Structures are given as C-alpha cells and as structure tokens.
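[09:14] KT: can someone run the structure on this one? pasting the chain below
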Amino acid sequence: MNNVDFNPYDIFYKEFENKDFGPSRHYYVCIYSQKIDENNRLVSDIYGLMITSNPKYNNIPNDYNVKIEINGKVVFVLCDKLFRFKVEEKMTLIDRKLNNFEKSEIKEKLKKFLTEIERQVKL
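[09:31] RB: done, structure tokens below
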C-alpha cells in the first residue's frame, strides 16, 4: 500500500508503462481522498484532475482549465479530466504547493464543470 496520505490540492504523479511509447509520467491534482471522507468508510480511492503541458491549451477557449507552473514550465490543470486511483498504486507527491489563488481557480472551474454535468443529467 502507498504510505502517502493524499489531501485535496496535493500535486502528484503516476508513472505508466506504454507498450508502444515506453514509460511516461502524468501529473494530477488531488481533489478527493476517500480516506478523509466522513460519509464513506472505505479508504482506497483518490480522485485527481489531470495536468498537461500540451501548449494547445494556450489557444483553446475552455472554461475548465487552470494555468499553473510546475518546475518552471507552464501547465494546465484540466478540471474536466477526472481520474480515479487506488492508493495501492505507486504515486509520488511533489513538493510544489498550490497557492490560494490557484486553489480558488481550480475550485471554481471544477464547480462549473460539475454544474454542467448536473444540468445535462437532468435532461
């Protein structure tokens, strides 16, 4: 089991092995930890928003992306790309901490996306 406790707004990465392209690393922002959920007795899931460095997001108008910087590089937190992980999987927290403005932006964009989901499922 992963010996790291994940909390909302922690930044972490997970390494993947792709048979065609070899190993890769994807970064995420934790937005949910089952372990600290008072309404759930399970402890093994965390949810993260994908982070990408793809420069196409500079020119794509999308109300769900938040621009931040990691390791001196501009990246985008994609608040409409939500992934579930098991804490047993190998994931590594990084030292980069989000500031209050970045947290606020992520919260706002995620809320906007979830509101859109709610609107669509009411159809």
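[09:33] KT: thanks! The chain has a mean pLDDT of 91.
[09:34] RB: yep, looked fine to me
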